Amino acid sequence: MSSEKFANPVVRWIDHRLPIFSMMEHEKYHYPVPKNLNYFWNFGVLAGLSLVIMIVTGIVLAMSYTAHVDHAFSSVERIMRDVNHGWLIRYIHMNTASFFFIVVYIHIFRGLYYGSYKAPRELLWMLGVVIFLLMMATAFMGYVLPWGQMSFWGATVITNLFSAVPFFGESIVTFLWGGFSVDNPTLNRFFSLHYLMPFLIAGVVVLHIIALHRFGSNNPIGIDAKGPQDTISFHPYYTLKDMVGIAAFLLLLAIAVFFFPNAMGHPDNYIPANAMQTPAHIVPEWYFLPFYAILRAVPDKLGGVLLMFSAILVLFVLPWLDRSPVRSARFRPLFRIFFWLLFIDGIALGYLGAMPAEGIYVVLSRIATAWYFLHFLIILPMLSVFETTKPLPKSISEPVLATAKGAA
Amino acid sequence: MANSKAKSGTAENGVQDPERRDFIVVATYAMGAVGAAAVAWPLIDQMNPAADTLALASTEVDVSKIVEGQAITVTWRGKPVFIRHRTKDEIARANAIDSGELRHPEEDETRVQKPELLVVVGVCTHLGCVPLGQKTGEVKGDYEGWFCPCHGSHYDTSGRIRKGPAPTNLEVPPYTFLSDSVIRIG
Fold first, then answer.
1. How far is Cα A85 from Cα B45, in angstroms, rounded to an integer?
2. Class in CATH terms, A6-282
3. Which of B27, B62, B125, B146 has its CA 20 to 30 A from that of B170?
4. What is the pTM of this model?
5. What is the pLDDT of residues A192-241, one digit of tens each?
6. How many inter-chain contacts (A to B, CB under 8 Å) are there?
């Protein structure tokens, strides 16, 4: 690598010894990106931005937060009332958590629709599922920290999931709690881990990006770039396209923070934790609702827990369940229908998870849960065999040039 | 930045008015910097004292119970404040010196509101230790005031620095007499 290309002598001196500027230059100008990416390809960058916002606001909040059962709730109220701009920082942290999940869910469904999980991007996809799992753990522990009623009972219910483990269940739960109920030791360790895990996520994100840059981004028509005529440089084309997405994202986030800061939370969490009194209707944060619905759909404790975890674990083996060589749903008419059915199924599970676990809701939850697993375990493998796909274009440029000619 | 300017400003890119393009680029970066600063400010300002901390910034003390020769220590803003009911002898000693010879020249009468009652912040002006001399039997230093054990600063009966590394006299906090017996510090 020659460092001659930099005009600034200081940059040249550093780059010769520590080639970070060459690396940046390489990623900016020489990393080829398919030229047909649509706005759904913004969501990776938006997820990265969300992680940065969460870490920055989180570090700042930790300066005023007290991880003790007697002081946690009031320290959060102090942040809201007394700490300079504390209300703003906390509302940004709270709402960005929700936006992070919105962004990641769209990112996941983008991958499902355009077949981004298929060879050679299986590991890229699996690292993404790891990030998703870490995010869920982080979000759960973060929700416990304000030590309101929902914090306390959410912590109690979720940690009790592990009591379903045969033989060792009770010991595992005691181990997680550091005692015989959710109490001060639990709060302390959750705070410690909540602070740690975002940095683990950042580490896996680095691996995710390394894996991404090995073969580059997938694209809406799902065929590989055949050469320079199919790609453009990341900068300035996609940096600017990402900026448009970032502006829209920040605008929506600001609307939520300033006008509807508690819309995605639950009012019961503004009641201090009370170990003697469970709230009448206990629900997790909205982003866990589909999985919560699956948990409640099964009339067996261990079965429910296993099925709930399987709902995420099945994503790990997705690249081997869907064996169709065609990536993009654009050329898979049947897959496209089933994709939207899965999407509706996911929304339905989310809705059912928020409803009380009784009557028709239980029946519907079971149907929706069955469909979820049917989709991944039966329909996708069958489609790989029986579906007749549409002919693929010869290159990324071809359909673009064809439309251009048609228009002329 | 220089790079993108050079790229976008060249005529071979078909840009007709490179100066106009440069202006747009610089204006965009400047706007971005303003935005970044606006976002950074709340994140930095949250480290300044919070409203409840500022609300605790005054302390009321009943000084009528302090007998002559006795000293008490009270807390103000998390720091010790020394209140000493000075004896006639101590007042005389404080006034005996020509203040012009001191490192930090201050007359004793400018440091007190009533000569018998000396109120000073009990934090050494060198590096923030609490000087000795409040309790009976503690070392009071060569000038019968206070002695800082950290680096050996000696203060006199007016809390003025006389010997050692401290640069200034012990600080006199703002205080007012609410009545003959009660003062409010801060």
1. 8
2. mainly alpha
3. B62
4. 0.87
5. 999 999 999 999 999 999 999 999 999 999 999 988 889 999 988 999 99
6. 38
